[in-house]
Amino acid sequence: MKFAVLDLETTGHGADDDILQVGVVIVDEQLDIVKTYSSFVKPTVPIPTFITGLTGITEEMVKNAPELNDVLLDLIPLLDEAVLVAHNVGFDAGFLNQALDRCGYMHFTGRRLDTVELLRIFYPSITTYQLGAVAEQFGIDGHQHHQADSDAMATALIFIEITKKLRSLPLLTAQRLSALIDESKDLHWYLKQNETWIEQSTVFESAEFDYYRQFALRAKEWNEDKTPREEGSVNPLDGVTFEDYLAGIKERFQAKFEQYEERESQSAMFREVYAAMSEDKHLLIEAGTGTGKSLGYLIPALYYSVQSNSKIVVSTHTINLQEQLRQRDLPLLGEVLPFPFKASIFKGRGNYLCMRKFEGKLNAQDMVAPIEDPITAAQMVVWLSETETGDQEELNFGNRGPEFWATVASDADSCLNRACPWFKRCYYHRAKHESNIADVCITNHSMLFTDVQADHRLLPSYSHLVIDEAHHVEEVAGKHLGLSVHYFTLVQASQRLFRDSRSGLLPALRLKLQQEGDDHVQSWVETIDTVIPVFQEIKEHWDKLFELLYGFVANASDSVSEGGALVKRLHSGMLPKDWEDVLTVENNIYVELTRVTKSVEKMMNDVKDRVDDLSVQAQITDLNGAIRDLNRVKDELRIIIKLEDIHFVYWIEASSAYRHRSLQLFGAPVDVSTQLQKHFFDAKDSIILTSATLTVQKNFQYAEEQLGLVGYEQQGKLRTVLLPSPFHYREQALVVIPRDFPVLKGANVDDAYLEKLVGSLADAAAMTKGRMLVLFTSYKMLKQVYDPLKAHLDARGIGLLGQGIDSSNRTKLTRRFLQQPETVLLGTSSFWEGVDIPGEGLVCLAIVRLPFQPPNHPLVEAKSELLQRQKQNPFMKLSIPQAVIRFKQGFGRLVRTARDKGIVILYDTRVIDTYYGKHFLYSLPGPKIETMHTDQMVPRMQEWLSSGYSGTRAGEQTATLTKEE
Ligand code: SF4
Fold this sequence. Notes:
Layout: E1 2-10, E2 19-28, E3 33-40, H1 49-55, H2 59-62, H3 68-79, E4 82-86, H4 89-102, E5 112-114, H5 115-122, H6 131-137, H7 148-167, H8 171-180, H9 186-201, E6 210-212, E7 215-217, H10 242-256, H11 264-278, E8 282-287, H12 293-308, E9 312-316, H13 319-336, E10 343-345, H14 355-363, H15 372-384, H16 401-408, H17 427-437, E11 440-444, H18 445-453, E12 464-467, H19 473-480, E13 483-486, H20 487-497, H21 505-514, H22 521-555, E14 559-560, E15 566-570, H23 580-610, H24 614-642, E16 648-654, E17 664-669, H25 673-681, E18 686-691, H26 701-707, E19 718-723, H27 729-732, E20 733-738, H28 751-768, E21 772-775, H29 779-795, E22 799-802, H30 810-819, E23 823-827, E24 844-847, H31 858-869, H32 874-891, E25 902-906, H33 910-913, H34 917-923, E26 928-932, H35 934-946, H36 953-961
Parallel strand pairs: 1-4, 4-5, 8-18, 8-19, 9-11, 9-12, 10-11, 12-18, 20-25, 20-26, 21-23, 21-24, 22-23, 24-25
Antiparallel strand pairs: 1-2, 2-3, 6-7, 13-17, 14-15, 15-16, 16-17
Helix pairs in contact: 5-7, 5-15, 6-7, 8-9, 8-15, 11-12, 12-13, 18-19, 20-22, 20-24, 21-22, 21-24, 22-23, 23-24, 28-29, 28-35, 31-32
The structure holds iron/sulfur cluster (SF4).
Residues 354-356, 410, 415-417, 420, 422-423, 426, 428-429 line the site of iron/sulfur cluster.
Pfam family, one: Helicase_C_2
EC number: 3.1.-.-
Protein name: 3'-5' exonuclease DinG
């Protein structure tokens, strides 16, 4: 047996396109490369310019190349009795057969393997399958992407690595894998071959894994986890003052980092955080970029926690920051702190795999999507041999992966807890246990509020809390304390119960019960048979309700969201005209759902009392979870449809393309400050709220008002501290405002404005050689700019990437931006914060418009109305502060380290022409700000960038230790 690893470069993807280059690498059964072959092919059609740009293949290079037939004569013997391997094998095999056909040869009908599919299974955490990026991650030197010989070699080396990895897996894992994949597939054959190889070569199973219920697991039982310091031992901080502790840490930093220099603002942060914690005060602390904010709170928090034997909870908003704490800051602290400590990560329950459900799904072969689901399951089986956490964040799913995950994720309603055979290996209970014994528990804002709603039964009990990225707390609170019902909420919940006569929890339970010898079986089966048709009726009512609601939004939408959704506000306490039909249909749903859930609950209780079989009990537990979901949907729908709570704002969103199936109902509290006071500021001893963007015009008033902290400072319960960034913004950042630039009115962009903007962006990009991020406030405008800008940039050899055009994935776009040397990136909402491109990768940031929120979004509108009732000015009190915070976030993308130097072009002249413009400029951390005519911009930019800046030694250290918000 041999593997022929093939790569083809072609003139395009169509049936009329030609092969331009062939690369083949032959790998034998021992995984040795035994032969290589490559050749250009003379095409019969001209090579399109973009293909030459992509591959580097010119007409000149192929003009004397062999004809296709001659190349195939070389290729056919190589493919004889070979297994064809390619990266996206469908493409290469399709082109190969097309070529064979054209020249009158038989198709290749042998086995095929796809390295993309293999990577998904065997490298479940890899974040990209793009060949160039994978080759880089695998350390393959000298790879030239889009050259057939080099791509074939890279694919062959990747294939060899994958196969070696498969052969090193535990036999149980290999057996699980081959059992998952349909026997008719070539992938099954490949897995079986290697399973046999493992069987023959394995004498003892590795002690690295825990073998349990036919799974090989990396994580061992969690009851073996110990507390960080021996119980009853002397407190390591007895007699150690906070200043001694800081001095000790400083010494260790100096020993570790030769160039370490203390940063004033970080030192101030240590002391402020410690003072607030030990004096039971709340603290609002803005720490500019480069302060080293996370160490700024972790170092004092760990001292306070260990010294007082109390737990500190740290909450972040983004996964990026959580990962940064886990991967960078905590290990570093492990090296410099004078005592051992334990920090744990605790996320929402749905992030953890429920092994009981996963095992049940695999054993029952319950695969809804017959092609995708087995691959996702295989990916997870491999992942189990690697993961310590069972956290889905580590998995890179395919398209249907999230749906698969939803069926196997841990959830409170269907957990067997101590009765579960997996309890001691359960990932969720492990994370919970670790949080209980940890000194610091790191969680996220969502979890803080989920814990509040679960009466504080989820997080370990705490009285000291650090909230990082605190500018997001109010918004997350609003989401969690509010309600939302999507069309698919009920559809998915009822599909879990019944999909067809053989799949779904009810048919599965029916089958199982029929095998029981109990007298009640007949009546249980009758209950199931009676409720199943009712779900069909409920679904019909549900469709009718959502069609009616879609009528409301389609006929009279108030606004269109940034994503293009139609939005219609529903006023609380005021039922809309013609709402009676909605109420009637909702009532039908409510009554029917109550009836079915009650009869299923009654049956479940009876089964639970009479049947001991563990697998039946497990099915009842899952069913219980699904019934609770339905009850929740029913109750939340009723609350929204009644529109009764005057402290809430209600609205509908739907897309005109997907109509009622895209419809979502929302209910959100207008003001969350009272709830924040009740659950946090009045309930906890000390809360540290920090972010790089809390102040507006160097003032905390807006944050205090939003969070419900007004008056706490006067009572001596709150301190506010603004720490400047250690960066030298005056030398590092130049803000250019083209003062003659037209002001854009409303959301529509006219041709003259577009032309001027595109011309200016193209000139600036030519000067900076790409390396430019353009921030928009609307996706519509981004799309309008994309094509004309692309035409300008193409002519100057500069690439362009657009969010939602080249990819919707921020991480992928950022990576491509970094990999492609001279490129401009256009981004909207998510690019305003959280994108970190240090160094020369980003030289220029263009802000097209000030980031005001659309005033007619129902939530913004309701908040404005509340302010008006309080005799306050919503524009000054809400719109400006919100926009300033976002503007500061956007600005923060430019200078990420002490050595960065760059330019911000601000195309919105309202910053200099209006009375409120100063709020924006004065909120920035001190860059050089210049206004000029548009024509003067490029020469000035050139002058500024060529003047050079080398940063400072302290800055260098800052860049090493702190790269964060
Ligand atoms: S203990 Fe609960 S969450 Fe964990 S595996 Fe068992 S049923 Fe699933």
